[in-house]
Automatic annotation (TrEMBL):
Signal peptide: none annotated. This is NAD(P)-binding protein. GO terms for molecular function: oxidoreductase activity. Keywords: Oxidoreductase. PANTHER family: ALCOHOL DEHYDROGENASE-LIKE C-TERMINAL DOMAIN-CONTAINING PROTEIN (PTHR47534:SF3), YALI0E05731P (PTHR47534). InterPro entries: NAD(P)-bd_dom_sf, Sec_Metab_Biosynth_Oxidored.
Length: 311
């Protein structure tokens, strides 16, 4: 276990060279969220931070941008406007990111975009479940598109469900057949698919690091923002305020996520980390790994991308 105290002191002690970093953040626009807390840690602990932030509402993020510039006046923070729910839009935004980077290489890619599928499977115009398109397929697509502009020791950090891998419905990876979709199945499925995709990427890019982390419970407002009707009211007025009293604060979790991007421990390979930063291989993941599922999931990703993007 990595104690938060240890995390904070390692972050504060980063030396000048280690702390010159260029990062892309997707899913860091909610000021109460984990992504934004990570971005704050990045701005505070990096001597010359360069961050490109992707989000769907520039005006609502303006206070966030102003705060980052206050934290570190030497930093360069650029906001690019994009809704990342469609793979085709991700292709376009990645080209914008590349021109924004110019000759600079990308050191850190933080992926925390998403919501929870309380309303079940909802298909988007590309034929994918809307929630899983954002929190799984989109994250893999960003990684695939940006890998060519990453520095040799770059790290990709996906904040979702590392160590929470579960049994997949192997014959319906998109959960498109009637009766197969549920909140639990969707979470189990994409947690496994994310770690297995990272296994494949780490094998193909041995100089880089791919970290899939479960952040633990954080009262970020994600429950209410993912729900509608009575469920939204219940989450916003009862559940989230109560949770806020007991669960981890976004600030500390953001410090942790930044630590995974800089600590020498996580320099290479594929990592599934729990909320305390412990690397675990749950039984079901062990079986999938032994059964060659990293390659199979990667093939599945490619076939989805081919079907959707070439249309
Ligand atoms: N909070 C927890 O307890 C917890 C526990 C386990 C796992 N997680 C996972 O951790 C990740 C971050 O969660 P969080 O609690 O920090 O929630 P959050 O702040 O609501 O993070 C979600 C982010 O994704 C962005 N986003 C969603 N759909 C988008 C779209 N179509 N285009 C562009 N941006 C989009 C949101 O942007 P807007 O500001 O525009 O809405 C927001 O910045 C999520 O994947 C979540 O499932 C959270």
């Amino acid at each position: 276990m990595v104690a938060l105290k240890e995390v904070r002191s390692a972050n504060s002690a980063l030396d000048e060279t280690a702390s010159k970093k260029t990062a892309v953040f997707i899913g860091a626009t909610n000021l109460q969220g984990i992504g934004y807390a990570t971005l704050q840690a990045f701005a505070k602990h990096t001597s010359a931070p360069r961050a490109i932030i992707i989000g769907r509402n520039a005006s609502s993020f303006a206070p966030g941008l102003a705060q980052l510039r206050q934290f570190n006046p030497r930093g360069r923070f650029t906001f690019l406007d994009a809704d990342v729910s469609l793979l085709k839009s991700i292709g376009a935004i990645c080209e914008d990111i590349k021109s924004e980077l110019g000759d600079q290489k990308l050191d850190l890619l933080y992926l925390s975009q998403g919501s929870l599928p309380f309303a079940g499977r909802k298909e988007n115009s590309e034929g994918l479940d809307t929630t899983n398109a954002v929190r799984y397929y989109g994250r893999v697509r960003f990684t695939q598109n940006l890998i060519s502009v990453m520095s040799s020791h770059a790290r990709v950090i996906s904040i979702m469900g590392g160590t929470q891998e579960g049994k997949m419905l192997e014959h319906d990876l998109e959960l498109s057949r009637p009766g197969n979709y549920s909140l639990t199945q969707s979470n189990n499925q994409i947690a496994s698919m994310m770690t297995l995709s990272f296994d494949h990427l780490a094998k193909e890019n041995p100089d880089k690091s791919f970290i899939h982390v479960f952040p633990g419970l954080v009262s970020s407002g994600i429950l209410a923002r993912s729900a509608t009707g009575i469920l939204n009211v219940l989450f916003a007025w009862v559940v989230e305020p109560m949770l806020g009293l007991f669960v981890a604060k976004a600030d500390g979790v953001g410090e942790r996520m930044f630590y995974y991007g800089t600590s020498a421990v996580f320099a290479e390979g594929s990592w599934a980390l729990d909320e305390a930063g412990v690397s675990k291989e749950v039984d079901v993941l062990k079986e999938y790994r032994a059964g060659g599922w990293a390659g199979k999931i990667w093939e599945h990703n490619l076939s989805v991308f081919e079907r959707v993007v070439s249309k």
